[in-house]
Amino acid sequence: MAIASLFLSVLVSQWALPSIRAQDTPNDGGKSITIRWQVPANLPVENLILERREKSGEVTVIASLPLGETGFTDEGVSDGKRYQYRLGAVSGADTVWSEMSGWVQSSPQFFNWARVNILIAMLVFFALVIYFIEHAKAGRHLFVRRIAGLDAVEEAVGRATEMGKPIVYVPGLGSVADIATIASLNILGEVAKKTAQYDSALLVPNRDPIVYTVAREVVKEAYAQAGRPDAFKADNIFFVTSEQFAYAAAVDGLMVREKPATNFFLGTFWAESLILAETGATTGAIQIAGTDSVFQLPFFITACDYTLIGEELYAASAYLSREPLLLGSLKGQDFGKLLIMVIVIVGSALLLLSKIPALSFFQSIISFFNVS
Amino acid sequence: MRRTIPLAICLGMGIIMMAQFFIPHPVSVAFYDLTTKWIRIVSAFALVLGVGSLILYHIERLQRKRPGWIYSIVTLTALLITAFIGLVWGVKPGSPLQEILFKNMLVPLNASMFAMLAFYMASAAYRAFRARTKEAALLLIAAFVVMLGMVPVGAAIWGKLPEVAEWVLSVPNMAAKRAILFGVALGAIATSLKVILGIERGWLGGGKG
Question: Are residues B70 and B110 in the same domain?
Answer without folding.
Answer: no
